[in-house]
Design brief:
The protein is mainly alpha-helical. The chain is 70% helix and 6% strand. Helix 2 runs antiparallel to helix 4 and helix 4 runs antiparallel to helix 5.
């Protein structure tokens, strides 16, 4: 019983997951040709947008991978530069002694500055930090170490400036990496939404509208065929009635009995009019042509007139 219940539950769950044209996977619209044109235009726009976003995603992915490689290289360089700067500072202290107080007294403002620019990558603005030095504030620092240890102090200063430049570059790359990662996630989310949700829904809607329009055309074709069949049946009935009338007139002429109130020429003209009306009638649902009738006013010829007309 548990296995049977499990199979029943699995079957019902699978049936619920199956998409149908009538209730899921399409937009609820009234199937008309105007709606079909609108859906086709929306599908063209969605396809074009998906193509553009896909290209943007590819460009962002390439830049993302390049930034990742540059960050790895900068981190490797950063370790070597920091080692060199640390050894140069130890060398300067060993040669010139404690020069920290002298350096701090000679500095009135920062000589190493950073400015921020913006880099545009496929519509995504990435911050870029660029270091630069203010040459006016370095005039007093040039006289540090004139007594002894000037060269090691200057070498240590250059090593630390290179380390700061590399550090600013690494910070710029990591900031751009984070911003690019968020933009890439958003773009991929939009690409997936267009590819797996919007476009299939529009395609299913277009297929549904075409199916409904084709069904209407089949119904209209069947209706026209039925109308033609009704017309044909009506014409055949009228022709049969006309032929029966002609046959009755011929038998009367052979027997030699002619109504005194209806000359043979008039009877032939009436029969010709009946046949013409039967073959040229355009109304498929009209009744048969009413045949003229005459009441007998005299004895002897009334029975023949009633039989003919």
């Amino acid at each position: 019983e548990e296995a049977k219940q499990h199979s029943t539950t699995t079957l019902s769950f699978d049936q619920q997951k199956l998409p149908t044209m009538s209730n899921a996977g399409r937009i609820a619209v009234f199937p008309t040709r105007m709606t079909l044109q609108v859906m086709k235009q929306r599908l063209v726009g969605a396809t074009r947008g998906h193509s553009l976003l896909k290209k943007k995603s590819d460009a962002l992915t390439l830049r993302f991978r390049r930034l990742l490689r540059e960050i790895k290289d900068k981190k490797r360089q950063m370790g070597a530069l920091m080692d060199t700067a640390g050894f140069s500072l130890a060398k300067a202290k060993y040669t010139a002694g404690q020069v920290a107080e002298t350096v701090l007294e000679s500095v009135s403002q920062a000589s190493f500055r950073v400015r921020m620019d913006v880099d545009n990558v496929a519509g995504v603005h990435l911050p870029v930090f660029k270091p630069f030095e203010d040459g006016g504030s370095n005039a007093q620092q040039e006289f540090i170490g004139l007594g002894r240890g000037g060269a090691p102090i200057q070498h240590s200063r250059d090593c630390w400036i290179k380390s700061l430049e590399n550090l600013v570059s690494l910070a710029s790359l990591q900031t751009s990496f984070i911003a690019l990662d968020e933009a890439l996630k958003t773009t991929n989310r939009r690409v997936n939404a267009l590819e797996y949700v919007i476009k299939p829904r529009l395609e299913n809607t277009i297929a549904y509208i075409k199916l409904e329009l084709d069904e209407r055309e089949r119904e209209e074709f069947y209706r026209l065929k039925k109308i033609q069949a009704k017309k044909k049946e009506a014409i055949e009935r009228k022709l049969a009635a006309a032929e029966a009338l002609l046959a009755a007139n011929g038998s009367t002429a052979v027997n030699g009995t002619v109504s005194p109130h209806r000359p043979p020429a008039a009877a032939a003209a009436t029969n010709h009019a009946v046949v013409t009306a039967a073959t040229t009638s355009s109304d498929p649902f009209s009744d048969l042509v009413d045949l003229p009738t005459t009441s007998s006013s005299t004895s002897g010829g009334g029975d023949d007139d009633d039989l003919l007309f």
